[in-house]
Amino acid sequence: MSRHTSRPRASAAPRITPASPCPCGLSAAYGECCGRFHSGSAAAPTCEALMRSRYAAFAVQDAAYLLRTWHPETRPPGVDFDPAMRWVRLEILDTTEGSAFHSTGTVAFRAHYTDDGRPDSLHEKSRFVRHEGAWAYTTAVFVD
Length: 144
Hints:
By secondary structure, the chain is of the alpha+beta class. Helix content is 18%, strand content 33%. The protein has helices at 34-39, 47-60, 63-68, and strands spanning 85-97, 104-115, 118-131, 134-142.
């Protein structure tokens, strides 16, 4: 996801603990799922895992992880979080390649959120490449 905004930050991310359900939608707890990628104790093994962990990073407002997993050629100088937005659900719609045996991959998804309490969604197809042995987000095409 590449959405960012310049609105001033007015509130912190929702409190997520290692025992909380992972925001990415898988059944594991955050600490056993995306939290281990965010902490750096593990690397996302597939494009889908990286996409899920990046979505979770938006949900918990982990700018450092988002920047660390963004390819250096397309990485912005920073990530600003919109205080009115809350990411509520991720749907993975399609993946191509992106396994341990590939060097590129894509993930199409729909990310559901609320903006000042109003529900909306973002439909995107993200592209990933291997960079220095790890998956990195490069670019996205917004589908609608």
